[in-house]
Amino acid sequence: MYGWIWRHLPGPLAVRVLTAAVLVLGVVALLMFVVFPWAEPMLPFNDVAVEPE
Amino acid sequence: MSRYEEPETREIPIPDFSRRPAGPPRRPRQQQPPQRPPRRPDSNHRQPPPTRPPAPPAKSEGGGSAGRTIVRTFGEVLITLGVVVLLFVVYELYVTNWMSGKLQDQASADLDAEWANERELHAEPLDGKAFARIYIPSFGADWNFTVQQGVDSETLEIGPGHYKTTAMPGEPGNMGVAGHRVGKGAPFNDLDLLNSCDAIVIETADSFYVYRVLPMADEAAGWAEGKGRDPKCANVAPLRDRDGAYAETVGRVIVTPGRGDAVAPVPYQPADVLPKASQAALLTLTTCHPRFSDRERMIIHSVLTNQLKKQPGAGYDDLLAEIGEA
């Protein structure tokens, strides 16, 4: 998977390293700002209020 | 090694080097191996310098490549999922704190601005808007958060939230406040460290309300002779002495999430058990318990001990000196 991506990145080595870093950062940002905030309410450790049954 | 072989070694590097610059570097890996074997038979002994390891990959491409690819991809996916889970932990423990910190700063600035400008204040706080500030001196003199109206998840991201149907600061009855214990600024992270008689201060537009944590379940017996003699504990006494309805209202209680009556006017009792006039003025903090879980809730009950009108120019520091917490 990663090998395939690496082989398909264009340009010389330096450009490919840079592109790969940008890709990684993009995925991390997507997780942090979109995926995790969406998934978090469904996980069982953030309810702090008491609710009547 | 022996001198017989020397002539051979000289011949080989020359064609090899001359060939290299011709092709683009690295790319033609798959093409190189087929070209090399014809050269090799002459030079069995001196392989290492001219030929590079790429020879084995050529074999792997040939046989069983599909199986290898599947196994490798599967492994990569598993590693990736592991990294994602670690990133989620980082998100939960650090990134949400950072996001909530910004929201809290904004809410705090808005609240100061609202209090500074002397126009008529909203009688009813607006949902999701800060209307008070909470201080816990034993968590440090600079520990404070704005208290927002409502306990939905968006509001709790800003800071502690006030259960809408519960009493307002200073009122008889029970003011309920919920807050996160992990992430999202974790305002109530250390709630388990509160001891009886520790102060919890609520600041509103015009007053400071000083609540103190009620005696713990194991301290209630012999309170007057024991901890009750501490000057900090003036006006703090087990509530059950006041009325039997308060029998279960002690400093710290762990309950299941369904116990909405923890923030009832008289905790754990039906709403109409006592007339409003004879209800104690309580402040109840709720958070999750154990930490990192929502299996239970930790409840801290405190009772109003004094209330001070804000004097112009006097702030929280002066209040701390006055109540002996400075």
TrEMBL record, chain B:
> CDD domains this protein is in?
Sortase_E
* Pfam families given in the database record: Sortase
This protein's source sits in the domain of life called: Bacteria
Residues annotated as transmembrane: 77-94
Q: Residues annotated as region Disordered?
A: 1-67
| Protein keywords | Hydrolase, Membrane, Transmembrane, Transmembrane helix
Biased region (Basic and acidic residues) positions are: 1-19
Q: Return the Pro residues bias intervals.
A: 47-57
The name under which this protein is listed is Class E sortase
Organism equals Prauserella endophytica
